[in-house]
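Checked the freezer inventory, then went back to the computational side. Two predictions to log before the end of the day. The first one is the construct we discussed on Monday; recording sequence and tokens without edits.
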Amino acid sequence: MNSYISKILFVCITLVFVGCSDQIKEVVLEDSNKPNIILFVSDDHGLDALGAYGNPIIKTPNLDNLASEGTKFTNAYCTSASCAASRSVILSGQFGHATGSYGHVHDYHHFSTYDTIKSLPVLLEKAGYETARIGKYHVAPEKVYHFNTVLEADPRNTVEMAEASSGVLNSDKPFFLYFCTDDPHRGHPFTPDPWDAPNSFGNKKEGYKDVETVTYKPEDVIVPEFLPDTKQSREEIAQYYQSISRIDQGFGKLMKMLQETGKADNTIVIYISDNGMAFPGAKTTVYEPGIKLPCIIKDPSKKVKGATNNAMISWVDLTPTILDMAKVDYNKAAFHGKSFNEVIDEENPEGWNEVYASHTFHEITMYYPMRVVRHDNYKLIWNIAYRLEYPFASDLWAASTWQATYRANEEYFGPKKVKDYLFRPEFELFDLSKDPKEVNNLATNKDFDEVLENMKTRMKHFQSKTKDPWMIMWSHDASLQGSGVNL
């Protein structure tokens, strides 16, 4: 009897061992097929300053080459034109009003993501990825946005950052590299002396090690339509361009290093910015220059090259998209965004005609909640605190571009009146196909009452779906307030 049982046990153990061996081989094989992913995020880079998006003056050959080898999105949006708030969405797949990431995470703000959130790097690490970050972080707490490896380099020198990433590029495991520059954010000091001196945008007279200094003449730059065409604007834009050309060189260095590892054919590269250019009318606003951004994706598994995609996508879609790319199973209901991985190689995919934005704070002293829905060509902005004066970020207020208008008591700042920029109506409704500058507010036009109500309904549905606490401001509806007990 014992001999018989022993034989049975031997057979069972053998079968289990063989089954486990096959399972292990299958997992290893699956891991070996997982792509590497590089998410390259610049700081305050708008659509206005990239060759691939139509600027003939700025020199961005490496980013332009990425577009020629992949897909360029023309309707890509961040959800909040503020650095920390935007980055929390990029890495969580949820709007900041639902995660506690209301604004900057500077120590005196204490804005911080709820510790129950499972972020992109944590989910990828769990799936077997080597996760690494370098450069600007600006999210909290670290345990929510944890990366296996933290690399150190000057975040203004993208060539140095690329070189510091060598170990990750040569990882034995599939890797996720979160590469975040400080360029082209405005540089310190924010307040110039004299007042009309252009900000440096991180540029230095002595330049940066191993980086060619590329300069621009103010008379040659292209002034975006939302800005006044002044001496001060042009001088600052020239500095902004220089900072972007530094980004491009570091990006080129990183791509060259990737090619040398032999992994380029299995590495997805994504280039985005956190929000629009750091000029009044863009950054910290929900107007198009603040939230409509570059997005270039090269996925070697896709057949298209040099493609243009007109789908409306949002940074809230990035986490589920990257998980899809990484072949990681995930709960779709855990995210507010949805994966656009399957439509990257399409030009006009169906069902991608609506995006939302949600801004509450930049600095804690800048309370000005705004909610946005764009559906097809219509865009509705709800300025929830419209009775307040629109608050200025300190670096934008001190900018010579703004001060030239303010000190001269000019009536207009670009195409908008200064008083309309500082004091906004409760609702702003635009038809972007006819009014891309967003100057003709249709919200008070009786001919558009039906459109306005339709857009309000879409906005309320979005707020309800994403548990936006500011939904209470519609009709003092307290249904989202809960019990008041912190569970």
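The second is the one RB wanted added to the comparison set:
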Amino acid sequence: MAIGLTADRSRSDTHWAHEQEVIGPGLQAVMLWSKLCVERAEGAMLTDVDRHDIVDFQGAGGVNSIGHAHPRYVAALAAQLATTPTGAFGSPARLDMVNALRRLLRAPLDRIQLYSGGTEAVEAGLRLAKSVTGKHEFLSFWGGFHGKTLGSLALTSGARKGLGPMPAGFFSAPYANCYRCPLQLTSPSCGLACVDAARDVIKRESTGALAAIVVEPVQGRSGNVVPPDGYLAALKEVAEEFDALLVVDEMMTGFGRTGAAMAHHHEDVTPDIVTVGKGMGGGYPVTGVISTAAHMASAPFSEPSASSSSFGAFPLACRAVATTADVLVEENLAEHARKLGAELLDLLRPLADEAPLVGEVRGLGLAIGIELVADKATKEPVSGEVLRETFLALLEAGVLVMTGGNTLRLYPPLNVDADLARETVDVIGATLTRGAR
């Protein structure tokens, strides 16, 4: 596999400098570190403007679900663009999307409303929860990420510095991060004590107006943290105890990423509301709120224009979702992600012993996290500079990854070739082991 960067990145440097004359600050750290300028992409491979080939295990944080430039996707969107690209009316594209989604959605969660960004869908989910319950408080979890607008930011503990005040009625509890248990306990002997902690937070901080518990089935930004079995089911019981809803944010985990159509299917839990995005459009910016017909009928959410979005249901968006969903089902990509993800985890887990910087390897399906620590005994996170150096060492070796906190996050396409994935994991392992000496 001839991949990697050479010393000559003159075209990329010039290209990047010209862009930054207009682009504002605040881009993702990995974009700023890499200054990568992509000229073309196919499958799991990127080629930059200097003609370097790079394996894309970043996948825009899980967006690239069916691979770059999937022939069926390219043909479908090109044809749609030539007919009716805009306007949220009924269309053949929307009907095709509805029929495609029937193959992925489970009753009673069989209604969807479309949006164009993740935070927009989360905000809509909050409005829906308020409409259903008539209440206004929300519980979220440490380490989660739900967006950057006011309501979704209030759900996102640890990302609010300098942006206050937050709206009232939002509070948070420890997530089931067993590697870094905030309660200093060990699973499974803890008996899901973190769920009891969440219950206590509600009892202490709620005014009796809890609308919903909002949770990620796998925490992406914190490094693809996978909670223990039974966690979502236990949170569903807590929500019911307080006559509240369970909102599962599947923005990153939905549409096959974890080895099931939706991550909550692993536990056979039925949330009240699900937010989705990223991989559902295969690269087109489209997100959604999924719920039951009864919940969606609740006012004011159900009133005309109360839950609409300017771009969400455009024919191009619907065609992207329809095509992506059809490819996911017909190519059996969730199952491919389940099997290959388990194999890649088995190949990577020895790094926790062999590579001094690796504290834990974890994941579900093709959402994998490699947590980097300065000290394995204390689990002290690596510095930001070490994380940056490790990211750049992998990029120089030809592998692009995502980061989050002190963790390397891997999101290959769900249809990534198994041999390419194994070779890429070998490169990651060799780089981490060599770089830690």
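For RB: The longest strand covers residues 367-375. Residues 418-435 form the longest helix (18 residues). Let me know if you want it refolded.
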